[in-house]
Structure formats: C-alpha cells, structure tokens
C-alpha cells in the first residue's frame, strides 16, 4: 500500500511545492526516533531527518509505484522534492536496519495544524504497520504542539490510501479536481486533534 498526500502548488511537475523558508517542526536526536514496530524479519525501524542519499533511493522506489507512477512523477523529481532544503516543510525517512524503507514530508503550519504532504512505505516494508506508526508519531507531535488538525491529500483513485486514512480517524472533507493532473481528483482529509 503506497500512500499519497501532496501539497497543492505545481513546480516542475504537478503537485510539488515552491514555498518560502521556514523552521523545521520536529527535532529528532541524531540517532533518530525508534518506531515501536518490529516486523516478522525483526528489522529495527528508526525515524530520522532526510539525507540526500536516502532521498535518491526513496525517489527511485516511489517513481515505480502508484500513485506516483500514475501521476507521472520521475525519480529525479521525487528525489529533489525529498531532499530540498530551505522549504517550509520537513522531510523524514524511516530506515529499516539502515536501509530506507519509508518517508513522509510535513508542512508544519497549514490550517490550525500540519499538512502531511507525503506518506509512503516502499513495497518490501508494507503490511507491517509502519505507515500507522509513522502517522501515530506525527499525531503525537501535533498533540504536543496543541494543534487542532492534521491534514492530508490523497488521490481519489488511491483507494488503499483513502481506506488507511479513514481507519486512522481522518474524514474526507473536500474534492479538489484537476489539482495535480487534469482529469484526476484529489481528496482533502482532516483528522481533528486536541478538541476540547
């Protein structure tokens, strides 16, 4: 299950963002944050700030799978997006025993909470709860910062991503036709957090 959540303004290819400089929302220790999950192969998963070589490996993997394949993203564009510095978002990688397994990018200040622009788990690591653990970590960070919402965007055709987000408590709140590609619809999803 590959998951998609992109921002909304085109760059060189649809869906990539060009935004001003900002501060990173999260600080991680140099050794990263251990995710609770261990899969059947006893691999250890750690969440870390993105590095350029991981961005290249992840970009190559993402370009070969939907939704990025259907949306015609090249590996070079995805790698640039994941490794871009000075953007108003933070890119994070998950390593499985030192090998890139998953990633997410987050824009910290959107509409009373962060926007999860991208959440992806490479095929060899899908099905062990890694996406769920990544999202749980992000929700914990937003709760710590007393944010009211967590947002994401998924392609309408990406039924597995939409089902995943619904299972995590997100509600679909709007359709965005022709946002990334003509003839494609993106779905805006919202998770309410810290509601009094």
- Please provide the ordered H/E string of secondary-structure elements: EEHHEEEHEHEE
Residue share in helices? 10-25%
Low-confidence stretches: 1-24
Largest beta sheet: strand ordering: 1-2-3-4-5-6-8-7
Structural class estimated from helices and strands: alpha+beta
**Quaternary structure classification:** single chain
- Give the tally of structural domains: 1
The largest sheet is:
8 strands, mixed
List its traits.
196 residues, disordered N terminus, 8 strands, Aminopeptidase, eight-stranded mixed beta sheet, 29% strand, alpha+beta
Question: In words, what does this structure look like?
Answer:
By secondary structure, this protein is an alpha+beta fold. The protein has one domain (33-192): Gcn5-related N-acetyltransferase (GNAT) (Aminopeptidase), CATH 3.40.630. 23% of the residues lie in helices and 29% in strands. It is built from four helices and eight strands, in the order ββααβββαβαββ. The chain has helices at 52-63, 75-83, 130-144, 159-167, and strands spanning 33-38, 44-49, 90-96, 99-107, 115-121, 149-155, 171-177, 185-192. An eight-stranded mixed beta sheet has the order 1-2-3-4-5-6-8-7, with helices on both faces. Strand 7 (171-177) and strand 8 (185-192) form a beta hairpin. Helix 1 runs antiparallel to helix 2 (75-83). The longest helix has 15 residues, at 130-144.
């Amino acid at each position: 299950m590959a998951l998609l959540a992109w921002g909304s303004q085109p760059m060189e290819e649809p869906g990539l963002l060009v935004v001003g400089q900002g501060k990173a929302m999260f600080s991680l220790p140099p050794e990263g944050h251990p995710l609770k999950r261990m899969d059947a192969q006893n691999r250890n998963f750690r969440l870390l700030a993105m590095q350029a070589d991981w961005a290249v490996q992840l970009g190559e993997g993402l370009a070969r799978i939907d939704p990025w394949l259907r949306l015609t993203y090249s590996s070079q564009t995805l790698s640039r997006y994941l490794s871009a510095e000075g953007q108003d978002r933070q890119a994070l990688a998950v390593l499985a025993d030192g090998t890139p397994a998953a990633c997410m990018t987050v824009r910290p200040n959107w509409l009373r909470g962060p926007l999860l622009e991208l959440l992806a788990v490479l095929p060899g690591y899908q099905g062990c709860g890694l996406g769920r653990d990544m999202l749980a970590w992000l929700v914990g960070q937003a709760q710590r910062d007393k944010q009211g919402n967590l947002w994401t965007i998924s392609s309408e055709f990406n039924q597995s991503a939409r089902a995943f987000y619904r299972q995590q408590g997100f509600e679909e709140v709007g359709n965005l036709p022709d946002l990334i590609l003509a003839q494609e619809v993106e779905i805006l999803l919202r998770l309410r957090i810290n509601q009094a």
